Amino acid sequence: LDVQVMETFKTKLGADHPSTLTSMANLASTYKNQGRWEEAEKLLVQVMEASKTKLGADAGKLDVQVMETRKTKLGADHPDTLTSMNNLAFTWKSQGRHSDAFALMKDCVQARQQLLGAEHPDTLSSLATVAGWS
User: Fold this and answer.
1) Which residues make Cβ contacts (< 8 Å) with residue 18, sequence separation at least 6?
2) How far apart are CA 101 and CA 38, in angstroms?
3) Radius of gyration of the chain (CA)
4) What InterPro entries does the annotation carry (predicted)?
5) Is the pLDDT of residue 99 over 90?
6) What span, in angstroms and rounded, lies between the C-alpha atoms of 43 and 131?
7) What's the rounded mean pLDDT across residues 82-87?
8) Is the pLDDT of residue 72 over 90?
9) pTM
């Protein structure tokens, strides 16, 4: 169903419309929940690149807003909040804010290690990102 929604938005609204990008992110979340890590990551990269192009600096502001809202509503150590931290780090990196992105991703790794464990795929993904950025 998520694939169908995404394809419909792409056809009707265009590949870079915010609703299309949201549906792509939702599909990536579904893939992640199904253990389809590579497909989820590939789709999220597409969303981040399109968001960067479409929204520019607003993407960072929106990512901060999502992260702060999730912290307030779900708690700082909730997995969805940590995903928001991860997304914000990628946005900042794409905007050239490398030191901010690196610091936030390191925080995300530490929080995921404590909450999810060192061997959890999300933890390992964030850890690989930090290693690649250093």
Assistant:
1) 54, 55
2) 22
3) 15
4) NLR-like, TPR-like_helical_dom_sf
5) yes
6) 21
7) 91
8) yes
9) 0.59
Is the separation of the CB atoms in 115 and 108 below 8 Å? no
| 6-64 residue pLDDT tens | 899 889 988 888 888 888 888 988 898 899 988 988 888 888 888 767 666 677 788 88
Q: In this structure, which long-range contacts are made by residues 12-19, counting pairs with CB atoms below 8 Å and at least 24 apart in sequence?
A: 15/50, 16/50, 16/53, 16/54, 18/54, 18/55
Of 63, 71, 56, the closest CA to residue 101 belongs to 63
User: Using CA atoms, how far apart are residues 90 and 101, in angstroms rounded to an integer?
Assistant: 7
Tokens 């792409």 appear where?
Answer: 10
Residue 130 Cα distances to 6, 16, 44, 79, angstroms: 30, 28, 17, 18
**Cα–Cα distances in Å, from 32 out to 12, 29, 37, 61, 99?**
26, 5, 5, 25, 27
pLDDT at 50: 80
Rounded-to-integer distance, Cα 20 and Cα 9, Å:
5
